[in-house]
Amino acid sequence: MNSPPHPPRQALPTHGTTLTPQAFRTLQAMALGGLLVLVLGWFYSPLRIWSNLLVVAYYLVTLALGGALFLALTYVTGAGWHVAFRRIPEAMASLVPKTGIAILVVLALRMNQYGWQLHAGAPEGTDAGTYWFKQLWLDPPFWMARAAIYVLLWSVLALSLVAFSRRQDRLNPQELPRAIGSMKWSVRLSALFLVVYSITFSLASVDWIMALEPMWFSTMWGVYQFAGMIQATLAAIVIVGLLLRRPGRLLYGIFRTDHLHDLGKLLLGFSCFWMYIWFSQFMLIWYTNIPEETSYYIARMHGPWGPVVLVSVLLNWIIPFFVLLPKPCKRSEHVMMKVAVVVLIGRWVDLTVMVFPSTVGKLPVLGIWEISGACCMIGIFGLLFFKALTKSAPAPKNDPYYGESLSYHCS
Amino acid sequence: MTDRHLLATFDYEEDLLAATDEVRHQGYRIVDAYTPYAVHGLDRAMGLRPSRLTWVCFLCGLTGALVALWFQHWTAATSWPLDVGGKPWNSLPSDVPVTFEMMVLLAGFGSVFALLGVSRLYPGKHARTPSIRVTNDQFVLVLDEAGSDFNLPSLVKLLEKHHVQNIEERLSADQASCCE
């Protein structure tokens, strides 16, 4: 497999474009149109609109946080392969504050959706031993304050990671040895981020999604959310990387087929990881068959939501796994683009299956509100992302691993 | 195929890669290349076919999964139906962990043993290296002196362009003699 030759380093364009003006206008129309329809829909059915808003905001904040997670993982593992296209996850990570505020607003819109059942007292047959704690933990002021703290911590850490990397760009050639020193701080910050992230994100996913059904619980919830998040993040990186590597674009000659291949391997791996975790959570509950645990799956697998669950498994694992197994597929632009789109749709279906049966009810819905929500999400993410991308040089040229990332062979 | 081999020794990985690529494009036959570590891109320079090991791995994994599924179904639902917590005998979710493990086990063992078999490796096998230094700091390219267009002077010139350190002719039977 020969990768297409990339132009030599000195010939790299420094100011390529990101998107065509038409694409920008389309994204604007999607974001504004989607948002407008959702606002109008609030008068029609607040609960259904709110469920859509929650899916959209949670999807966006996990994509942004996923960018920061990708950066932190690559820093602490001393990776060099991704450096050339590191501005993609950095632009995603720089969106953590904005998407964080979005989810805080959405949560504040229907704070009582969480734990309102608790005010009526413990339902019959539930464990009174944990009931007092749930009542305390899901108390609205405490719950909202926690959400704000999560978003604040993620924002500070993600923005610092991005700022450390952009600081390298301003170094003069004779100061380059200092780039290594600044990387040490990035590694330390990443380690801190990973610890903070793993605790706060588990709690946040429990607070924001699992608490929609406060009497149900799963100890695998945090890792399940992590699996979906990193999988969608990789798919998003693949899509924007492929868009930006076309001739004349920002990452032309920088985003190489070897990068695509390695991202494909990670996407294949994390698709399997998502399935593994999904099944582990399901099987433990299926095997023990305790009513207070099975309620989640009975609502989703016995009845009209059943086929939707199968679709989420098809999109998130079966298609990515079997399509990405052969090496030529991971190096093919067309195949990778399609699989990444499938995975992002699968993520949306997965989140819908988590949220909608608890709020909207027994019947799966797919109407103008859901489509507007998805359009609004793509539009907002596209606009914010490509704007964030142009705020720095297209590639971290002063990074010690930059040369390695441009020339390594992946096989 | 003749029994006479030409051994070209290089000091640097880049020289070996460039020389291998050019030698192959000039039509000389490459027997093998010896390096102290895995040199990225050498398979491409030597013009090796893509590995077929992936297919062995896939088919072994598939076999493992199918055998495990069939065996569990036969033991728990056909031959001696087991009632576990009132669940149906042919409950698929309970079969998944063993199926997964058997798939991984057979895919892993299949790949390793296929690799050992194809490369004719076994415990205690004597190393066949043209020089002891290919395990440390030297790179050796072995060429076959076959073909009517084998032209020693032009080949030597080509190798010298890539900073060859030493050129040596050996009978193929003696290739590994230095280390024995």
Provide a short characterization of the protein structure:
The complex is a heterodimer of chains A (411) and B (180). Chain A is mostly helical and 411 residues long. Chain A is built from 15 helices and no strands.
Q: Would you state the CATH class of the largest domain in chain B?
A: Alpha Beta
Alpha plus pi helix count of chain A? 15
Rg of chain B, alpha carbons: 25 Å
Percent in strands of chain B: 5-15%
Question: How many strand elements of chain B?
Answer: 4
CATH architectural arrangement of the largest domain in chain B: 2-Layer Sandwich
Structural class by secondary-structure content of chain A = mainly alpha
Gross geometry of chain B: rod-shaped
Give Rg of chain A in angstroms. 22 Å
What about the largest sheet of chain A?
none
Strand order of the largest sheet of chain B: 2-3-1-4
Please write out the topology.
The complex is a heterodimer of chains A (about 400) and B (about 180).
Chain A: H1 21-41, H2 46-76, H3 87-93, H4 96-109, H5 128-137, H6 140-169, H7 177-208, H8 221-244, H9 257-288, H10 291-301, H11 305-324, H12 327-330, H13 333-359, H14 368-389, H15 402-407
Helix pairs in contact in A: 1-14, 2-3, 2-4, 2-6, 2-7, 2-8, 2-13, 2-14, 3-14, 4-6, 6-7, 7-8, 8-9, 8-13, 9-11, 9-13, 11-13
Chain B: E1 4-10, H1 13-25, E2 29-34, H2 42-46, H3 53-79, H4 92-118, E3 139-144, H5 152-161, E4 166-171
Helix pairs in contact in B: 3-4
Task: Label this structure with key terms.
A: 411 residues; mainly alpha; 0% strand; B: 180 residues; alpha+beta; Alpha-Beta Plaits; 5 helices; 4 strands; 46% helix
